[in-house]
Amino acid sequence: MLGLGLRIVMNPTLVIGDDHTLFLDALCKLLASQYELVGAAGNGRDLIKLVQERRPDLVLLDISMPVLNGIEAMRQLKKSMPETQFVVVTQQTNREYVAAAFQAGAKGYVLKSSASSELSTAMHLALLGQYYVTPLVSVELATLLDPNNSPGKLFEVHLTSRKREVLQLVAEGKSVKEIAFLLAISTKTVEFHKTTIMDQLGLRTTAELTRYAMEKGIVKS
Known about the structure:
Strand order of the largest sheet: 2-1-3-4-5-6
Number of helices: 10
Oligomer: single chain
CATH topology of the largest domain: Rossmann fold
Helix content: 40-55%
Number of strands: 6
CATH superfamily of the largest domain: Response regulator
């Protein structure tokens, strides 16, 4: 029997989404003493299933993941699991994706080149319901940031969630039928989204669309 004065302290539960095995292993070792790792996933759709099953306190995730990127995975999870907090750990410094990450529900945004102490700070603040963004993205943003207010409003995002999903799958080489099946929409709707995306971005071919997705870090080159 436990002594009356003994208190059991449980570490926050953690799920990680990243398709780089070496980086994933390094994160697990770094955080093992502070968090209880309850699962890891290498693509966005597997991450959604894992988080819904394990219901962790905190999720670390990359933006550039196959099948479904981290932003879209986070957007879907936040709707059904508002109590889970998310911190993005990525190489992407593009301002559009900083904004999209926070608008999708992120509490923190850290680069893979950031110091480990910075990641710890971001995770700690996220569990407190506060925001953090690395100064490596924008010194101006770090100066303006109020930890109680999302920085997403400081930027503009011009592609909707569905359009970014279609863009990623097109850039990954999926056919219209495959995309329709994955997203549970009609082929006509896929074609409509693809055409609208190309018009909106001023692109003319699928090759240009793919190159854009690579440049923005939506898919890997």
